[in-house]
């Protein structure tokens, strides 16, 4: 008998190595959430959006540490100071790893009476990392004075310039993200609960309950959103403390945005309430509330997650628009809308364009959330690729 070399035998296309077979077996036996994550991580823009949002929220949580100054710290000798550029040209070969900014000389133009700030090469202000600065309470609990970066006093660093009161725009913008980003999460939490609850009741019970809820939804949808927000915000007492106004604005935004989710939840439940697993739960004696919360809503949880991520930008834009128009939050509270309220006139935009930095943060946040939502929406049905 002639022995044949196994390595010379042709490889049949339908025969896969054991490693591939085990990988395929793990894939076909994986849970839905594993498949969703597997598909989501292939979406590059969604991953970038998620990373950006993680950085934004971490910056908002640790804003006192990230920023060199408190949001209301004023420098009377730096009114409308332009941004100070970071420099790295202090090494022997024209490049150094230690960043610094130049000090400035303030002059008055006797023709236009405008302040003019010119860099002073003789003043090199090196950034000091994890150094002492103004005292604050980290997370509102831990007293400390360590900041991510500062410059030695009496030097000043304005990465995004200063406003008309000499306040650091970078510090105020990071602090403002605490309000603008949190109002999106809190507002969408109210909206999510209302939408799931009323939409679920409408779809599960039907009849008169369904008719009443749907008529209320149609009435709310027929009202233009922005005038409704403006009218409700204008009705708030002007002497209310800012914390109460903050929660009132959050509730207003939530009350005006739950209708779309409620209709979708109603449609989903109408299509699934006759499924076998629902009938089995009813025969087992489960209450309607348990069937709704434990069985029906989780059956399309992936859609609800996508709806959450795509609705948060709308909340953020709503607060920004109201505060920009002067109908939402006001000083001394800082939000992106409050900061943009100071840049309404053409003169400010033309002469001090760095006052528009909060716009970049709003746009970046909305894009990141939309990319994240698109990735979750594509990954919500992981079986369609097999």
Summarize the structure in words:
The longest helix has 37 residues, at 169-205. Helix 2 (32-40) packs across helix 15 and helix 5 (169-205) packs across helix 12 (301-324). The chain is 55% helix and 11% strand. A two-stranded antiparallel ribbon has the order 1-2. A two-stranded antiparallel ribbon has the order 3-4. By secondary structure, it is mostly helical. The chain folds into 2 domains: 84-157, no CATH class; 171-385, MetI-like (MetI-like fold), CATH 1.10.3720.10. The chain is elongated and about 85 Å long.
Rg, please? 28 Å
Helix/strand/pairing category: mainly alpha
How large a portion of the residues is in β-strands, by DSSP E?
A: 5-15%
Distance between the termini: 45 Å
Give the helix/strand layout.
Layout (H helix, E strand, L loop, with lengths): L17 H11 L3 H9 L3 H18 L1 H4 L33 E9 L6 E12 L1 E11 L3 E9 L18 H37 L1 H16 L2 H10 L7 H14 L3 H14 L3 H8 L4 H12 L1 H24 L11 H6 L4 H6 L5 H23 L7
Antiparallel strand pairs: 1-2, 3-4
Summarize the structure.
By secondary structure, the protein is mainly alpha-helical. Helices cover 55% and strands 11% of the residues.
């Amino acid at each position: 008998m002639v022995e044949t070399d196994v390595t010379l035998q042709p490889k049949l296309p339908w025969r896969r190595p054991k490693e591939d077979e085990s990988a395929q077996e793990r894939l076909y036996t994986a849970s839905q959430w594993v498949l969703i994550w597997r598909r989501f991580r292939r979406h590059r823009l969604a991953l970038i959006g998620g990373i950006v949002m993680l950085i934004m929220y971490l910056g908002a949580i640790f804003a006192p540490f990230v920023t060199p100054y408190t949001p209301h710290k004023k420098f009377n000798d730096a009114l409308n100071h332009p941004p100070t550029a970071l420099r790295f040209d202090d090494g022997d070969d024209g490049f150094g790893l230690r960043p610094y900014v130049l000090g400035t000389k303030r002059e008055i133009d006797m023709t236009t009476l405008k302040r003019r700030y010119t860099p002073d090469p003789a003043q090199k202000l090196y950034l000091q990392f994890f150094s002492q600065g103004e005292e604050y309470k980290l997370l509102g609990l831990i007293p400390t004075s360590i900041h991510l970066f500062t410059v030695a006093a009496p030097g000043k660093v304005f990465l995004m310039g200063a406003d008309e009161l000499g306040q650091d725009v970078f510090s105020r913008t990071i602090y403002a993200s605490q309000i603008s980003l949190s109002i999106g999460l809190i507002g969408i939490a109210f909206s999510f609960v209302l939408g799931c609850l009323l939409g679920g009741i409408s779809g599960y019970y039907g009849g008169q309950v369904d008719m009443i809820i749907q008529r209320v939804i149609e009435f709310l949808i027929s009202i233009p959103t922005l005038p409704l927000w403006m009218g409700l915000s204008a009705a708030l007492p002007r002497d209310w403390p800012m914390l109460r106004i903050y929660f009132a604005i959050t509730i207003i935004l939530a009350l005006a945005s739950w209708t779309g989710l409620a209709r979708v939840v109603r449609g989903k439940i109408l299509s699934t309430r006759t499924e076998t697993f629902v009938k089995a739960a009813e025969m087992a004696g489960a209450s309607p509330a348990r069937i709704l919360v434990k069985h029906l809503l989780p059956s399309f949880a992936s859609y609800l997650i996508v709806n959450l991520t795509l609705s948060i930008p709308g909340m953020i834009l709503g607060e920004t628009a109201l505060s920009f128009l002067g109908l939402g939050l006001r000083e001394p509270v800082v939000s992106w809308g409050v900061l943009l309220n100071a840049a309404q006139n053409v003169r400010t935009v033309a002469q001090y364009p760095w006052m528009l930095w909060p716009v970049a943060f709003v746009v970046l946040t909305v894009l990141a959330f939309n990319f994240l939502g698109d990735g979750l929406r594509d990954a919500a049905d992981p079986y369609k690729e097999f």
